[in-house]
Amino acid sequence: MTDATTTTTGTDAAKLLRRHETMAVIRRTEKAAHDLFMSGLVKGTTHLAAGQEAVAVGARGALRDGDYAFATYRGHHHAIAWGATAEECLAELMSKATGSCKGKGGSMHLTKAASGMLGSYAIVGAHLPMAVGAAWSARLRATDQVAVAFFGDGATNIGAFHESLNLAAVWKLPVLFVCENNLYMEYTPIGTVTAAANPAADRAPSYGIPAELVDGNDVVAVEDAVARAAERARAGDGPTVLEARTYRHYGHSRTDPASYRPEGELERWLERDPLTVSANQLRALGTSDDDIRAAEESAAATVEAAVDAAKAAPGADLAEAFTDVWADGGAEWRT
Amino acid sequence: MTTYRESVAEGIAREMRRDDTVVCLGEDIGAAGGVFKTTVGLFDEFGPERVWDTPISEQAIVGAAMGAAMTGMRPVAEIMFSDFLACCWDYLANEIPKVRYMTGGQVTVPLVVRTANGGGLGFGAQHSQSVENWALTVPGLKIAAPSTPADVVGLMATAIRSDDPVVFFEHKGLFASKGAPAPDGHVVPFGQAALLREGTDVTIVGLASTVPLALTAADRLAEQGVQADVVDLRTLLPLDVSSVLRSVERTSRLVVVEENPYQGGWGATVVSVVAEEGFALLDAPMRRVAGANVPLPFADALEDQVIPTVDKVVDTVKALVDY
Ligand SMILES: Cc1ncc(C[n+]2csc(CCOP(=O)(O)OP(=O)(O)O)c2C)c(N)n1
Ligand SMILES: [Mg+2]
What pLDDT score was predicted for residue A5? Predict the structure, then answer.
């Protein structure tokens, strides 16, 4: 296991400013989702990723068009990083016809298959084998695509995690396992239920998989680490485990006030807010405060327009309840 | 003549020859040819890039098949014994059948999960259950369960070419059975039951192992002057209820023979449709000859107590005809 060192090599300011703006779009979308929930326009539940934006945006930045991503119920940031618009995401949360899944997915299942983001899955760990399969498929079709699975610290204790690491290692598949270690599985500190200090990275060596710990609030560090892992994968050297330390700003889900957090913990992490980190990196690269502010304002305007459009959109088409079970579009079960 | 067992490999091989995206994975399916020898010859013909031995990782087998299916392949995954579907049930219950729907049609999952199902070989409680009813509880899965060698090939062709996920139940008790080989290009569409014998007194509906059982029972009944229609459903989903209703229209009596347990068995779905839509056609109550609501015992004599037998079918039909 190697400790990643943050390097801005190869990251020019313009590129980083784009990452910063995407992270700002995600942050604003999460805030909008929260507010819309409070005003009764979003039902069910949401698992917001505010605070974890850098993992999704850094990873996407390091990958190519056509690479595959599989996410969890906490997946708004991955969907947006893979090109879903704030509007189609918020419309989906608001049960609108214009939602990315036509109202049949909701917050936990945002998907942007057209750009390789093949779903958000709400059974913990279930999508890791799928990412392994997508990587296997890339190899069988002789493309140089890679697949990445994003998952939480809690997912490292489910069998599918271990089955996936083993299979990916023995078949030497081009897959990246990216753990977003946000310190909690639901309401329980991960350390109290896990026999490894670094739940993903410490397990990887037993499967012969290289692992890296990375600062999950530093988009540049994530991008560099994912780029290294993707290069190994494309070269035929097999999977990598990345464990990104990060923190969610909201509670686990909509109903969780997160009162189990020790005093001062949130505040300490807010000082290392991924948007603050990237703004500082931009300044160090010579980007002006005006340019940074302009990017953030552009993000805010995008999400404001998205909220308005989603609110104005028609509700889910009732006929959609009976479509998309089968590939022919229908739901017939008898002849 | 060929065997049901050889027809499994034959059916897969025919599809692998016509479509490079068809790949197989499972435990011991490669050079070893599978524990039931149902994949013999595939590794030799297609090699290790098409036929993959896996670790004992049922979730990874089916989950990886799903990921590959979503990205341009047509995987055929083997789960050695159908009882082991429980180890990867999340994929059959929550992932594979739901992903197309919950993404609003953004993805398709053209895969086949093949598995050796059912009793009759004395493998005991954890290797003998008929679990086709498990799959029937899940909207979003297609289900095939052939009863003859030719149907194995013909339904396998449809299963592998299907853009929808298919659970393909191969019955352990039928592997050694023989029948006419499938002609070239043989394809059996899903949702088309086969009327295997015509009679006027009773309709007997079977699936997989209970089809030969129903045919034997029909022979015995004929000697006693009772003429039975025997319908092989071939697939549980789509479910060919039209063929069942058409037959009951002529016979006015229905007996369903199913190896899965009575509790939650597929026969309940068949009789409920007939009750709702064909009640006026009936001259007697419908009957289900099903597995008993107990785990499968080991000893042959005990196993016979709890799964359908020819005697049970004959007795049930006779009681019904006298009704
Ligand atoms: C198999 C399964 N068990 C339990 C749950 C309920 N559950 C949802 S999220 C969660 C915590 C997951 O924690 P982690 O993997 O760290 O991800 P995070 O929510 O922190 O992003 C649990 C227990 C579930 N969805 N699936
Ligand atoms: Mg967590």
Answer: 44
Chain B nearest C-alpha distance from A334 (Å): 4
pLDDT, average across residues B179-192: 98
Domain that holds residue B116: 2-179
CA neighbor of A57 nearest in space, from A32, A84, A93: A84
Question: What is the residue type of A299?
Answer: A
The domain limits of chain A are 2-254+262-311
Mutation target for B interface from A100, A130, A148: give the one with most B CBs within 10 A.
A130
**Do A132 and B60 count as a contact with CB atoms less than 8 A apart?**
yes
The terminus-to-terminus CA distance of chain A in angstroms comes to 57
Question: How far, in Å, from the CA of A245 to the mean position of ligand 2?
Answer: 10
What is the CB neighbour count within 10 angstroms for residue A124? 21
- The reply to whether B114 falls in a domain is yes
Q: Would residue B204 count as lying in a domain? A: yes
Which protein residue has the closest C-alpha to ligand 1 atom 21?
A152
Distance A286 CA to ligand 2 centre (A): 35
Residue A10 has pLDDT above 70, yes or no: no
Upper half-sphere CA count for residue A244 (Cβ side, 13 Å): 35
Atom 17, ligand 1: which residue's CA is nearest?
A152
Q: Tens of pLDDT along A172-194?
A: 999 999 999 999 999 999 999 99
> How long is chain A?
335
Query: Is the Cβ–Cβ distance between B232 and B197 less than 8 Å?
Result: no
Tally of structural domains, chain B: 2
Instruction: Give the mean pLDDT of B26-46.
Output: 98
Alpha helices in A41-116 (DSSP H): 53-62, 76-81, 86-93
Chain A nearest C-alpha distance from B280 (Å): 20
Q: ω into residue B55 within 30 of 0, thus cis?
A: no
Reported pTM:
0.97
- Residue of B60, B103, B239 with shortest CB distance to A119: B103
Contact at 8 Å (CB) between B63 and A133? yes
**Residue A136: other Cβ atoms inside 10 A:** 28
Write down the residue that tokens 């012969």 correspond to. Answer: A208
Q: Where are the beta strands (DSSP E) in chain B?
A: 2-3, 22-26, 51-53, 74-81, 112-117, 142-144, 166-171, 178-179, 194-197, 202-206, 228-232, 235-237, 254-261, 287-291
Beta strands in A190-272 (DSSP E): 211-215, 240-245
**Same domain as B202, residue B304:** yes
Phi, psi (5° rounding) for residue A239? Answer: -75, 165
Confidence check: pLDDT of A4 > 80: no
Say which CATH class A2-254+262-311 falls into. alpha beta
Average pLDDT score over residue span A302-325: 98
Ligand 2 centroid to Cα of residue A19, in Å, is 23
In a domain, B184, yes or no: no
Look up residue A95 and give its two tokens.
Answer: 């049960």
- Residue positions of B annotated with a catalytic role: 127
Closest CA to A130 of B68, B302, B196: B68
More confident residue, B282 or A8: B282
Tokens in use for B262? 């009575």
User: H/E element holding A70?
Assistant: strand A68-72
- CA separation, residue B7 to residues A161, B75, B167 (Å): 36, 18, 17
